[in-house]
Specification:
Structural class: mainly alpha
Shape: globular
Number of helices: 8
Radius of gyration: 15 Å
Length: 175
């Protein structure tokens, strides 16, 4: 369901740090997509989509228990998504990849969101949304790398401008 992932990517690019429950729900959905495709070997699009929705709804519901903690975990999961998908999108050979990089990305994401809070969520959500859009859209002659760079620039600029107009307090955004 590429249109579904593109929609999620657009929301993450432009509003990721402003909607912490969506940030966490997107992390759960992408985790469900990875588990469904790699471990459960779901090949039919509809079965994989239902599995993704289950994980996304579960993460969405858990995000209301403690927003700060779930935002930190969501940041780690989205960093893991980035380390798996960003090099492939750029065109790098993934022979170097091992599970150590995956764990390191999760830890870097957790530490970044814990220390830098909204700003780390802004960068992580923008990169994740840009990767999702670039992977799942076919824009003809426009290269995915150009799309990625353009979306990253527009997303960070938009989210930063929105932060200037409404600065969420630590309690409102992630507690």
């Amino acid at each position: 369901m590429p249109i579904f992932k593109v929609t999620i990517g657009l929301v993450l690019v432009f509003l990721g740090c402003h909607i912490p429950w969506f940030f966490v729900a997107a992390a759960g959905l992408l985790l469900g997509d990875y588990i469904g495709s790699e471990f459960l070997h779901l090949t039919q699009t509809w079965n994989l989509f239902v599995n993704d929705i289950k994980y996304g709804i579960l993460a969405f519901l858990v995000s209301f228990i403690h927003k700060r903690f779930t935002s930190i975990i969501g940041g780690g999961l989205l960093c893991a998504f980035l380390i798996l998908n960003l090099p492939q999108l750029i065109g790098w050979n993934m022979d170097w990849f091992s599970w150590h990089y995956f764990i390191a990305a999760i830890l870097i994401g957790i530490v970044a969101v814990y220390i830098f809070d909204v700003f780390a969520m802004m960068v992580i959500s923008t990169f994740t949304g840009a990767v999702l859009i670039s992977q799942n859209s076919n824009l003809g002659t426009i290269s995915p790398l150009f799309t990625l760079i353009t979306l990253i620039f527009l997303g960070i600029a938009t989210q930063f401008i929105l932060l200037r107009y409404y600065q969420p307090t630590r309690d409102e955004s992630t507690s």
